[in-house]
Here is the input.
Amino acid sequence: MNIKEYIKQWAESYKTDLIENIMPFWMEHGLDRKHGGVYTCVNRDGSLIDTTKSVWFQGRFAFICAYAYNNVEHNQEWLNAAKSTLDFIERHCFDTDGHMFFSVTEDGTPLRKRRYVFSETFATIAMSEYALATGDKTYAEKALNLFKDTQRFLETPGFLTPKYEPAVDLQGHSIVMILINVGSRLLKVIEDPNINHQIDESIAKLRKYFMHPEFKALLESVGPNGEFIDTCMGRTINPGHCIETSWFLMDVAKNREWDKDILDTALTIFDWSWDWGWDKQYGGIINFRDCRNLPSQDYSQDMKFWWPQTETIIACLYSFLATGDEKYLYRHERISEWTYAHFPDNEFGEWYGYLHRDGTVAQPAKGNLFKGPFHIPRMMIKAYTLCQEILNSNL
Here is the structure.
């Protein structure tokens, strides 16, 4: 493999695909130019199939627009879209107690509120990225305040409705991992000792509670002290989440002058998760595995969703940048070949989201309340910047 040529080709591919395919698709079919914000429930051709707006995706889209502006091209239309969506968030997406909604109508009427704080985390990274794009420090301060509100919601007993009855005492991986990424994004625009404290606390939890060397796996749900719970839920491995966590940790390691201990943790999680996730029969990253190799109870357990593939592409490039080990480029080649052979829609643009295990399309819609303009463009932007860093390094 000619590494330099390989990386140059992918860098150009990511940039071109983002500018000519992914962003135009969502600017045309998703951006709500009447009410502000973004629609995500769109069919294969981009036609609207539901006007309900995911509040998660208001933050995600605003983040992507600003992130693309900051790292790929100073496209004013993208920055304007970020501002429009942030305005929609601030006008319509907060309840009176400060906790954000899960979904609203197209004009912002509340529809549903859930126990999660992911609406808050995505709005936080959107505000911080917009602050970075514009230099407007008020958005950095808003982002920090929302980050602290998120922590308060999580720490206040009874504020968030518990998922289970008191007899079920579990902690989940998702919020631990996402707070690492939110903290890393915030540190780009504002300093506060609480941010690094949260990152360090989350990393400590991952190591102490969720990483289980006896299975060579990072588990999704564990007991309050990291106990292995021998149930279907307790045995679940979500390779995509784990791989996403690994590159979030690489971000922290890099920001701390390639902290060796954090990088080692990240690479361990990635290596474990690749082994669990890579489908040796068909290729691609599979949805769920059971750490005892028992049948997984989730109905979508053997499907191939879009986002685990994108997280794996990022993690491969990041691991190569960090180590120079070519095994990560060969992983990148394998996941990229499979992903680009199955997910892109060459007729209508953008990507399918839901494939059967063998790579055939399960349903053709380009978006819903959970799929939209986030994982795919984030991958392209992050992968493009990683390629530039690799080309500028001594590797």
In short: The first strand starts at residue 53 and ends at 54. The chain has twelve helices and twelve strands. The longest helix spans residues 3-29.
